[in-house]
Amino acid sequence: xxxxxxDYLPYAVRDFKExxxxxxxxxxxxxxxWGNADDLxxxxxxxTAGNMGLSRWEKILDITPKGTDSLEDRRFRILTRINEELPxxxxxxxxxxxxxxxxxxxxxxxxxxxxxxxxxIGLAAKNNFTDVESLxxxxxxxxxxxTLLQLYNTHAELGxxxxxxxxxxxxxxxxxxxLN
Length: 180
Fold this sequence. Notes:
about 180 residues; mainly alpha; 3-stranded mixed sheet; about 10% strand; elongated
């Protein structure tokens, strides 16, 4: 949204050259101030935070960002840490995974009669695999054996595409990438 100072003046004085000159010379400072105010508001919320806001959260939560992390990767890691709550329950773990990976991008369950937790992460959330692994290491009770797996595209999922559509991709892409 572009805000012009001249628009805030009464109609009676907007056409005077003196006021136009004053407003034009002050406009860059006000643009900067408005931008800073918008950044300050955006940095209050993890979903809209920029580098400064995410850095503050990382410092608070003692998270060291990787050099290759995008802002989305950093947001995911912060949300992972914030969403940790103990005591651990399977429904709570599913809620955390849904928040982090998105609906339908994971599965979690304990094999009946065992102490074996199996968590599968979908391709849409594959960039967050190590973060989910770290989360599981922190919140899962020590008496459970954890198996974390990456889900891949199956023949059933690729069956909706024609052979010519599939031919445009490599075998690795067909197995490891989300196809539209």
